[in-house]
Amino acid sequence: MNEVKAIVSVVGKDSVGIIAHVCTTLAENNINVLDISQTIMQGYFTMVMVVDISGCSIPFSQLAEELKLSGESKGLSIRIQREDIFDAMHKI
Amino acid sequence: MINTGSIFETIEMIDKQHLDIRTITMGISLLDCTAEDPKRCCERIYDKICRKAEHLVQTGCDIENEYGIPIVNKRISVTPIALVAGGCDTQDLVPFALTLDRAAKSCGVNFIGGFSALVQKGVARGDELLLRAIPQALAETDLVCSSVNVGSTKAGINMDAVAEMGRIIKQTAHLTADNSGLGCAKLVVFCNAVEDNPFMAGAFHGVGEADSVINVGVSGPGVVYHALQSCKGAPFDAVADTVKKTAFQITRMGQMVAAEASRRLDTPYGIVDLSLAPTPAVGDSVARILEIMGLEVCGTHGTTAALALLNDAVKKGGVMASSHVGGLSGAFIPVSEDEGMIASATEGTLTIDKLEAMTCVCSVGLDMIAVPGDTSAETISAIIADEAAIGMVNSKTTAVRVIPAEGKKVGDMIELGGLLGSAPVMPVHQPSAAEFIARGGRIPPCRV
Questions:
Q1: B156 assigned to some structural domain
Q2: Residues of chain B contacting A, Cβ within 8 Å
Q3: Is the pLDDT of residue A92 over 90?
Q4: CA of A7: which chain B residue's CA is closest?
Q5: Does B364 have pLDDT greater than 90?
Q6: Could you give the number of structural domains in chain B?
């Protein structure tokens, strides 16, 4: 099956286990992580992941909602968006 | 992998700078829905719209979810009803508007445009019936938008139609007076109307278009405003360059959404309309862009030049970003829909005369302007004639969307709600143009 790439972005206050938390949600829904970039900017945890959603076991909107809700409980803003929007705006 | 900074830049544009897709508009041809029996014709119209646009709203919502970009409106535009209903055995076209309203509600869209007539050179039977039906149609429907083209660069200006439109606008305001004259917010009088405009209230599906088509209108005044904050004191070359780069990014997003919607709906992609369309929200204003260029208040001297630069740079930046640019494309200046314009008009710096000058250099016309309720039909016609003349001579689209606010006087506010915002009632000149409007006939085109 062809890869369908999406970007997961996470911003919020740093705490123990953020990456594990996000990866667990992704793994539960059969989503493969292709790349991770993570840094702390001015005390804020900032992470971008490239993931493959082609095998995702639930509808995309449900996944987005799950990630969003799971982040809110930890004070994190988590969103997932198809990669194409970033390519369109930043690549010629 | 695309760098983190770019990803967060896009997210910030959407979250904090009101970047959105203003509308996905599906254009639908109704030319094959004609029938002599008006009931049969209405049935065909309803069926075709519902068949074509069945999945439009769901698809829009899916794209919104998956790409994380808000798509504010999903809309439908149809063939001008004057052309479709002209051959029907009826004198009353209001049922056609009711049919459009019903179809729009079944599909779940925000607006449907195309209760329209093209009368720049003359009025045919269907046009006459449609004009007559406009006030009642707009009073009895919720989602139907109407437009009438009264002039063009090639044909000149049909002054009989201009005179008629003054009366129609007055009557529409009267019939919808309980709703602040809302009917007039859904009625546009054009010169040089375009056939692929996705924005309301002036959208209709031109006869040169395919059976159905997807047009997308982008927005993004907030993003341009934010980008220009870093240009303080820089020469205009730098300002133009910054606007172009930002318009390019915004339009690329519009292009991607248009292509995706077209693919999912199996409907040809028409155009991207790269317009800066403001909303009443703070931080989403075209007026504030003009002010950040160095004007204390939008509407003061220098505003026309600032708008000229903005409009041109938006177009230049957007053209390369999209395979097909169309619609109105440029900066919109609807007073009631723009927080900065409302502020400036309320304090009295922004006047109708200045707005008229601004329409010479931007993409539309006198838009969403409230005038006193006692403004005569002839004065409104004269305002339309002035705008149409600007459009005709300069080969550009101009439009008039004014709202006579019944029972209100200069300085009062009217509330239209939602994206339509609120409008301060602005003064018009008192001396009469009645004799001028009463002449009728046509103003010849400036070039033959």
A1: yes
A2: 1-2, 4, 6-11, 62, 65-69, 249, 252-253, 255-256, 260
A3: no
A4: B7
A5: no
A6: 2
* Average pLDDT, rounded, for chain A: 91
* Distance from the B370 Cα atom to the nearest Cα atom in chain A, whole angstroms: 38
Q: Which residues of B touch A37 (CB under 8 A)?
A: 1, 4
Chain B residues with CB under 8 Å of A86 CB are: 2, 6-7, 10
Same domain, residue pair B134 and B236: no
pLDDT score at A1: 65
pLDDT tier for residue B363 given thresholds of 50, 70 and 90: confident
Tell me the per-residue pLDDT of B269-323, one tens digit each, with 9 for 90 and over: 999 998 898 999 888 999 999 999 999 999 999 999 999 999 999 999 999 888 8
Whether A85 sits inside 8 A of B2 (CB atoms) is: no
Chain A residues touching residue B11 (CB < 8 angstroms): 9, 79
Long-range contacts of B240-244 (CB under 8 A, 24+ apart): B240/B309, B240/B312, B240/B313, B241/B313, B243/B309, B243/B310, B243/B313, B243/B314, B243/B317, B244/B313, B244/B314, B244/B316, B244/B317
- What value of ipTM does the predicted structure carry? 0.88
Contacts with B1 from chain A: Cβ below 8 Å: 35, 37, 48, 50
SS3 for chain A is: CCCCEEEEEEEEECCCCHHHHHHHHHHHCCCEEEEEEEEEECCEEEEEEEEECCCCCCCHHHHHHHHHHHHHCCCEEEEEEECHHHHHHHCC
Q: What is the domain-level CATH number for residue A55?
A: 3.30.70.260
Question: Residue B233 sits in a domain of what CATH number?
Answer: 3.20.70.20
